[in-house]
């Protein structure tokens, strides 16, 4: 099941890449279009049911088109009939379908799109319930048969501290190789905290009501955890194929809820009262959202832990946060993003077991990091502990990462193929999240 090559390349020299947006219900669909791309038609066909989701999407695109600085010039052609999906398939007014919306429909949308011969750029997660995992496998098989590329949007691979953490972990004399770890002290841990209410592109975010329904959006274990599981595979085993049948073993997982009031729900959705489909999660006047989860598993013999939590709103001056540690035999590579760091992801290097790593760390920064990222420096904090100093020019922000992922995908289309490991590792990633959800739900 390679599923990573296409016989007919898409040349970008003649505007032969044309986006189709299918049923956009998440602001990530618009962020793909926050910038223009060379060789991509400015005309985008949108197929969606009539309703607030598509209207909000079009408002975001209009905002990009009318902004003062570097405005875009997208032209949106919209079809909102009840038969929008079949109309998209029949009309074939583009060759790349962008899917970002109600996750309960996403696996079906993906399969039907690749089955109709479209390339697909899909927001995570591609699947939210174990019962749909086999359909996702079939979608990858079908994409391979139809010579189209199916890819998901993994923005966190483009965050600078994650990139540098990965780079340093590959320098054996410094890092010493990843330890095996234990369930209580994993080799790699990734944790993230998100917030329901926040600002995107300078405006308060408006989330659809279904975002709070685990049957439509997915739970924390099947949604945001996708990014963290992906980073573990991408950083710990770069360029290696992960076999989901033999290389992954789920040990344990758990899930829990975040509560919000009717007023908070109305503030972030514009809806009042709660929609009927959320009634089973309401106690008194509070909505309990299954947005949090934790999993412990083994991948390629290495113990890993992933944890995702959602709060309603971040404290003043704060935002979404991330914690990550890769434990090596000679050094630990740690990303922290707390109050001490001004809520900016910050990478630390800490010697372990009395290892003398100062000379190797300075060599790694001077000969490896600075060649790729001029301006990167070191600040020694205490004996055996350093902070990697990162110029602000590399901190482009989460929203800019969508353009970086899209550029990468356009490059794959131009080449007519993806790296051999991408498809099997996407499959392994979603197998992991589905196993975690099954385990936590027992």
Give the ordered list of helices and strands.
EHEHEHEHEHEHHEEEHEHEEEEEEHEEHH
**Proportion of residues in extended strands:** 15-25%
Distance between the termini: 30 Å
Largest beta sheet, briefly?
10 strands, mixed
Tally of contiguous helical segments: 12
Summing up helix and strand content along with how strands pair, one would put the structural category as alpha/beta
Low-pLDDT runs: none
Q: Tally of extended strands? A: 18
Radius of gyration: 22 Å
Mean of all residue-level pLDDT scores: 94
Dominant shape:
globular
Query: Helicity level, as a percent range?
Result: 25-40%
Question: In words, what does this structure look like?
Answer:
With 442 residues, this protein is α/β, with parallel strands linked by helices. It contains twelve helices and 18 strands. The strands form three sheets. Strands 7, 10, 11, 12, 13, 14, 15, 16, 17 and 18 form a ten-stranded mixed sheet that branches. Strands 3-2-1-4-5-6 form a six-stranded parallel sheet. Helix 2 links the parallel strand 2 and strand 3. The protein is globular and about 65 Å long. The model has no long low-confidence stretch (mean pLDDT 94).
């Amino acid at each position: 099941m390679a599923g990573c090559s296409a016989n007919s390349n898409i040349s970008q020299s003649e505007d032969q890449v044309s986006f189709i947006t299918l049923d956009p219900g998440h602001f990530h669909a618009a962020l793909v279009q926050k910038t223009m791309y060379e060789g991509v038609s400015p005309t985008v066909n949108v197929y969606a049911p009539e309703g607030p989701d598509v209207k909000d999407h079009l408002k975001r695109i209009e905002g990009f088109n009318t902004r003062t600085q570097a405005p875009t010039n997208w032209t949106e052609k919209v079809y909102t009939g009840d038969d929008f999906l079949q109309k998209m398939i029949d009309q074939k007014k583009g060759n790349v379908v962008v899917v970002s919306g109600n996750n309960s429909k996403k696996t079906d949308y993906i399969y039907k799109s690749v089955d109709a011969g479209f390339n697909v750029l899909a927001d995570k997660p591609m699947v939210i319930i174990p019962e749909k995992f086999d359909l996702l496998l079939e979608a990858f098989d079908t994409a391979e048969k139809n010579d189209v590329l199916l890819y998901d949007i993994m923005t966190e691979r483009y965050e600078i501290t994650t990139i540098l953490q990965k780079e340093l972990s590959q320098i054996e004399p410094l890092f010493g190789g990843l330890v095996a770890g234990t369930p209580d002290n994993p080799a790699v841990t990734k944790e993230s905290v998100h917030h329901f209410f926040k600002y995107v592109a300078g405006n308060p975010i408006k989330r659809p009501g279904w975002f709070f329904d685990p049957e439509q959006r997915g739970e924390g274990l099947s949604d945001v955890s996708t990014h963290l599981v992906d980073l573990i595979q991408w950083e710990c085993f770069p360029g290696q194929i992960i076999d989901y049948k033999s290389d992954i073993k789920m040990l344990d997982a758990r899930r829990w809820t975040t509560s919000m009031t009717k007023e908070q729900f109305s503030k972030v959705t514009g809806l009042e009262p709660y929609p009927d489909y959320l009634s089973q999660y309401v106690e008194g006047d509070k909505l309990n959202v299954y947005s949090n989860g934790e999993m412990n598993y083994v991948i390629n013999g290495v113990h890993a832990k992933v944890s995702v939590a959602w709060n309603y709103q971040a404290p003043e001056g704060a935002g979404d946060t991330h914690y990550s540690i890769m434990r090596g035999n000679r050094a630990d590579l740690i990303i922290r993003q707390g109050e001490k760091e001004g809520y900016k992801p910050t990478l630390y290097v800490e010697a372990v077991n009395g290892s003398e790593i100062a000379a190797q760390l300075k060599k790694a920064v001077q000969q490896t990091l600075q060649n790729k990222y001029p301006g990167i420096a070191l600040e020694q904090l205490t004996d055996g502990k350093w902070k990697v100093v990162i110029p602000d020019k590399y901190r482009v922000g989460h929203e800019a990462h969508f353009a970086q992922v899209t550029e990468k995908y356009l490059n794959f289309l131009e080449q007519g193929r993806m790296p051999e490991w991408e498809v099997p590792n996407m499959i392994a990633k979603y197998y992991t999240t589905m196993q975690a959800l099954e385990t936590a739900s027992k």
